[in-house]
Input
Amino acid sequence: MGDSNDFFEKVYAVVRQIPEGRVSSYGAIAKSVGAAKSARMVGYALHASIQNGVDIPAHRVVNRNGLLTGKFHFFSDTLMEQMLHAEGVLVENDRVVDFKRLFWNPSEHINDLL
DNA sequence: CGGATGACGGGTC
DNA sequence: AGACCCGCCATCC
Output
């Protein structure tokens, strides 16, 4: 079953691997599930996860610059930042402080999943 | 059916 | 650094 539902499940599986206090990006996740050119679809999948109440740490996914581009899709527009802050990730002007250091690359841990 | 619309990213200026 | 463009592709209208 290589349909879009499959893609969603793969994305969710990867997002669940992001450790507490760390963050990843749409593009990095897209690569790790073998769809490097579909970073946009990762965002789409995360949006769907919230609508469907899927239990994944979607707040740990930001864009390539560490910007909280998805914050408006949470129940409150400050929830994403609050959740990150609760696990020790600081945010300033919608950007993850020390993004490079906190960045978690799924492809370097691919052996742990699929 | 065709154009617009995104939780994007790489490249260029 | 920041603005801009273009490729990408499922979904929407």
